[in-house]
Amino acid sequence: MPQSDAQPKKQRSVPTLGEKLDVLDLLKGGMSVASVARKYGRNKSSIRAIKIRETEIRQAVASTAKDRVTVLLCGNAAGHLIKLGLLYRSANPHALKGKNKNLLPVFWQSNKKAWVTAATFLDWFHKCFILEVKQYLEEKGLDFKVLLLVDNAPGHPDAL
């Protein structure tokens, strides 16, 4: 078998959307194509290709930024806030992969649209609100007498 002197192909590196946005911002700021190419270690034709597709790239970034999160807040007149409730669309987002969500400073919940439903509200009420309020009242030496004011939003159950 003959040996070839050919070197392996260089692994192609595709810039991320964030890098493409940075390139576009530098070009918009007046930096030359050659300077941007040197800065990012790419050839000028790659930078020009990014510039040509500017509208498409900016639209892609705008459409990926439509993330949703809901935060549940609850406090008393004295200013004491209980643990925040955080409702996200993913139960295990990549940023928290392998992390124990019970150790977060929020009460973590998830559903497909990150909307408060009767089920998620009741889950927050029983697993977070009651426990936090009991602990607070015990620390203050007070009886467990609580008034929770809730509006008539669709996610709040009628019978609580």
UniProtKB/TrEMBL annotation:
Residues 66-157 form the DDE-1 domain. Residues 9-59 form the HTH psq-type domain. One of its GO terms (cellular component) is nucleus. This is Uncharacterized protein. It comes from Chelydra serpentina (Snapping turtle). GO terms for molecular function: DNA binding. Pfam families: CENP-B_N (PF04218), DDE_1 (PF03184).
